[in-house]
Amino acid sequence: MEFQSCFPIWNKLTQAQQDSILAGLTLRRIQKGAMIHNSSLDCTGLLLVKSGRLRAYILSEEGREITIYRLLDRDICLFSASCILRSAQFDITIEAERDTDLWIIPAEVYRQIMEESALVANYTNEVMAARFSEVMWLVEQVMWKSMDKRVAAFLLEESAIEGGDRLPLTHDTIARHLGTHREVVTRILRYLQGEGMVKLSRGMVELLDTKGLMALSDI
Fold first, then answer.
1. Closest C-alpha to 72, from 102, 46, 44, 116
2. d(CA 151, CA 172)
3. How far apart are CA 160 and CA 179, in angstroms?
4. What pLDDT, in 10s, does the model give residues 39-63?
5. What is the largest CA-CA distance in the chain?
C-alpha cells in the first residue's frame, strides 16, 4: 500500500506539490504504547495511518485521561500538526494502541501547500470539522449520558473495531478511555455480567447480548 493511494486528494495536487510532499514524507513504525505527540513536543506534522491504531486523548490536571477519537487504517490526524492552523492549539496526546506504521508529512511542507491551494485548504477544513464533530459528540456523551450507557456504547464500539465479541480489555483501560475511575467501571461491568450482557475474565470482556447493550446505550 503506497502513500499516493491513501491520501484522498493526491490526484488533485499539482506535480510540484506531489514532489514536495514525497521529498519530506517519512514512514515510521511506532511500537504499541509509544507516545507520538503531546503538547510539550514540537509540532509533529500531519499523520496518515498506513496500518495499526492510534488513540488521541486529553489529560486532566488530576491525571485522568479521556479518549477523544481513534485513528485506524488510512485515517488522518491534523491535531498533531495544529501549528498549521495558527489560531488553533490543542493540548492532546497521541499514542499507539497497536504497533502502527504511519506516514508523517512535515508541518511546514503541508502548510505551504495549503496556503497556495484552495483545494487543500478546503480539504483541511473538512478534516478538522469532522474531528471537531467527534469532540462535540464526546462532550454530549459526558454531559448527558450516564456512565453505564457510556460503558455499553464503548463495548459495542470496541466490538466493531475488533470485529468480534471477545475484547482484550482491562477495567483500567476502559476507565482511561472514558475518563472515569476503574472502580466505577468494575461496578458497571459486574452489573452487566449479572444481567447476562457480558462475561468477564482476566483481561477480557466477552459480549453475550449485543441487543441488550444497544438498548442500554440508546444506540
1. 102
2. 12
3. 21
4. 666 677 889 999 999 999 988 878 8
5. 62
